[in-house]
Amino acid sequence: MVFDWKEYINLSKFLLSEENRFSHEEASWRCAISRVYFAAFCYARNTAVELYKLDVTGTDKDHPNVRQCYRENRLGRIASKLDQLRIWRNMCDYENVIEQDLEQLAKDAVKFAENVYDWIPSQTY
Questions:
Q1: Cβ(115)–Cβ(81) under 8 Å?
Q2: 103 lies in a domain?
Q3: Where are the alpha helices (DSSP H) in the chain?
């Protein structure tokens, strides 16, 4: 069964919801940001492979290559959203202290990831 990467967006929405009972909000916000990046990236990667025959390596080089593929196919706004999501994801996964409002950043990240899903051409599989 193929994993539906959009489920990471649903998980992130849960982490931001009132239903989430985890006591450490910052961890929930950081996790939400990290997961929505991968929801958007993996969907974009899979679509680029299918529609544009992008050759993926399974390495960190795929991240810039996917963004470049969309730029080359006149879908720069998708690449821009992926750029910003990756910056936020790296910040949340590696920085000890983040001065920004993480709750708002997580909400914005969910919207950005949803934009990627809305703007990307339909997959054929």
A1: yes
A2: yes
A3: 7-15, 25-52, 62-72, 76-94, 102-119
For the entire predicted model, the pTM comes to 0.93
Cα 19 to its chain centre, rounded Å, is 22
Which whole-number Å values give the CA distances from 81 to 25, 41, 85, 89, 104, in the listed order? 24, 10, 6, 12, 16
**Tokens representing residue 96 in the block:** 């000890």
Structural domain boundaries enclosing 50: 7-119
Domain count, the chain: 1
Q: Which two tokens stand for residue 104?
A: 């708002």
> pLDDT by residue (tens digit) across 30-72?
999 999 999 999 999 999 999 999 999 999 999 999 999 999 9
User: How many other CB atoms are found less than 10 A from the CB of residue 98?
Assistant: 15
Residue 1 falls inside a structural domain: no
CATH number for the domain spanning 44: value is: 1.20.120
Which residue do the tokens 């051409």 mark?
Answer: 121
